[in-house]
Design a protein that fits this description.
The chain is α/β, with parallel strands linked by helices. The protein contains eleven helices and 16 strands. The protein has two domains: about 230 residues, 3-Layer(aba) Sandwich (Rossmann fold), CATH 3.40.50.300; about 70 residues, 2-Layer Sandwich (Alpha-Beta Plaits). A six-stranded mixed beta sheet has the order 6-7-8-3-9-10, sandwiched between helices. Strand 12 and strand 13 form a beta hairpin. The structure holds adenosine-5'-triphosphate (ATP).
Length: about 350
C-alpha cells in the first residue's frame, strides 16, 4: 500500500471486499454555474459490475470525470481504489482504465500499433507488452485484423479497440462511459461479452449507460441518476420487484378521451384492491398492481360495459423502464432523454440504436 493510500479497513463491504469507489455528497458545479452533480453518494465494492443509468444530461459523464480525476469536485469526499481524488490523482490514474465516449483510436495506425501506443502511454513494462497485446487482441476478437489500419474499422470494432486500449495496464477498475452508444445490437452484444469476460477476471466495472437493457443485462447493481441526483439504487431485480406487482398493458381503439376514461375506471371502480398505479400511454393505459393477472379480466369487462373498445391486452413483469417511470413519472426513451408520460413511450429495450456500419 502506498503511504498516502487510505486504509479503509473499517469501511469494508460486509463480505470482506474493499471498496473500489466511495463517494459521499459529491457535487460538481461548472464555471458557468451549471450544477451538473448535486450530492451523489455511492459505494462500489471491488469486483462489482456497477451501472450508472440516466438520460442525456443527467450528470453521468461529469461524475465519471471526477472519479477519473479529470475534474475536481466542488464539494464532497471521493476515494477511488483507496486514493483521494483531491490529493492522489496520479495514483488513481495509474490504477484505473477509462474508456471515454469519444474514441481514442488513432485511425492512421493499425490495431496493434494503437495498443502499443496505449502501452507507452500507460508505461507498461517493455517485456510484458507483446504478450499483453496478443491477449487483448484475442479477447476483443481483433486478432485477425491486428495489422490493418483502424481507418477501415466499423464503429463496433473501434469501440472494442478502445476498450482494449483502456486495459493494457491491467487496471483493477475500469470506467466505461456509454461504450455502446450508436452501435447496432450485434456489435453491442459482442462488447457485452467482452465486458462480462473482464469482469469475470476480477476487474471492477463502472459503466454509464442510457440503455435500460444494457444496465439490466450487465449490472450487479446500479444507480439511477436524474438532474444530478441519485433517484434509485439497487440490483436490477430488486428495483423491479419494488415496482410492486405486475404490469397490465391495455391497448384501446379510441383516442385520449377514452384513455382518460379508462384510467378513471381503474382509479375509481376498485377492481384492483391494492391501490394500483395507472398511466395513460400513447395507445391505451398501463396498470401496475399485484392483482394484474387476477383482476385483469374484470377490468376488460368494466371497460366493455363503459363502451370502450380494447384492441390488445398483456400482463408482464416490470422492466427497468417501469422502475424509471415509477420513480420519475417519465419514461427513458431510446435516445436516453427522459420523455413525459404519454409522449415517447418506447424504451431502449425495445428499439435498437442506429446501425454502426457493418460490424463483421
Ligand atoms: N463543460 C461544461 N460546462 C457547463 N456545463 C456542462 C459542461 N459539461 C456538461 N455540462 C452540463 O452538465 C450537465 C450534466 O452533463 P453530463 O455530460 O455529465 O451528463 P450525462 O448524463 O453524461 O449526459 P450525456 O449522456 O449527454 O453524456 C448537463 O446539463 C450538461 O449540459
Amino acid at each position: 500500500m502506498r503511504s498516502n493510500q487510505v486504509d479503509r479497513s473499517v469501511e469494508q463491504p460486509p463480505d470482506g471486499r474493499r471498496y473500489a469507489i466511495e463517494a459521499e455528497d459529491l457535487e460538481l458545479t461548472y464555471a458557468d454555474g451549471t450544477e451538473a452533480v448535486s450530492g451523489v453518494s455511492m459505494a462500489v465494492p471491488e469486483g462489482e459490475f456497477f451501472g450508472f443509468l440516466g438520460p442525456n444530461g443527467a450528470g453521468k459523464t461529469t461524475t465519471i470525470k471526477v472519479l477519473a480525476t479529470l475534474l475536481n469536485p466542488t464539494a464532497g469526499t471521493v476515494h477511488v481504489n483507496g486514493f483521494d481524488v483531491k490529493t492522489d490523482q496520479q495514483a488513481i490514474r495509474e490504477s484505473i482504465g477509462y474508456m471515454a465516449q469519444e474514441t481514442s483510436v488513432i485511425t492512421e495506425m493499425t490495431a496493434r500499433e494503437n495498443l502499443r501506443f496505449a502501452c507507452d502511454a500507460y508505461g507498461v513494462p517493455r517485456g510484458d507488452r507483446a504478450d499483453r497485446i496478443e491477449e487483448l487482441l484475442d479477447l476483443v476478437d481483433l486478432a485477425d485484423v491486428a495489422d490493418k489500419q483502424a481507418e477501415g474499422f466499423s464503429g463496433g470494432m473501434k469501440k472494442r479497440l478502445d476498450a482494449a486500449m483502456a486495459l493494457v495496464h491491467r487496471p483493477p477498475l475500469v470506467f466505461l462511459d456509454e461504450p455502446t452508444t450508436g452501435l447496432d445490437p450485434k456489435a453491442r452484444n459482442r462488447l457485452w461479452d467482452y465486458f462480462e469476460e473482464i469482469n469475470d477476471r476480477g476487474t471492477t466495472i463502472f459503466l454509464t449507460t442510457q440503455y435500460l437493457e444494457e444496465a439490466d443485462h450487465l449490472c450487479d447493481r446500479l444507480s439511477v441518476i436524474l438532474d444530478g441526483e441519485i433517484v434509485a439504487e439497487g440490483a436490477p431485480e430488486t428495483l423491479k420487484r419494488e415496482v410492486g406487482g405486475e404490469i397490465l398493458d391495455v391497448e384501446l381503439e379510441d383516442g385520449p378521451a377514452a384513455r382518460e376514461q379508462a384510467a378513471g375506471i381503474v382509479r375509481e371502480d376498485h377492481i384492483f384492491e391494492d391501490d394500483p398505479t395507472v398511466d395513460v400511454t400513447d395507445d391505451g393505459i398501463t396498470v401496475t398492481s399485484r392483482e394484474s393477472r387476477k383482476r385483469g379480466p374484470d377490468l376488460l369487462v368494466a371497460l366493455r360495459d363503459a363502451g370502450i373498445t380494447v384492441t390488445g391486452f398483456n400482463v408482464r413483469s416490470p422492466t427497468l423502464d417501469d422502475v424509471f417511470l415509477a420513480i420519475t413519472g417519465e419514461h427513458l426513451d431510446d435516445e436516453g432523454s427522459a420523455a413525459s408520460n404519454g409522449e415517447a413511450v418506447e424504451s431502449a429495450v425495445e428499439r435498437p440504436a442506429a446501425a454502426d456500419g457493418g460490424d463483421p
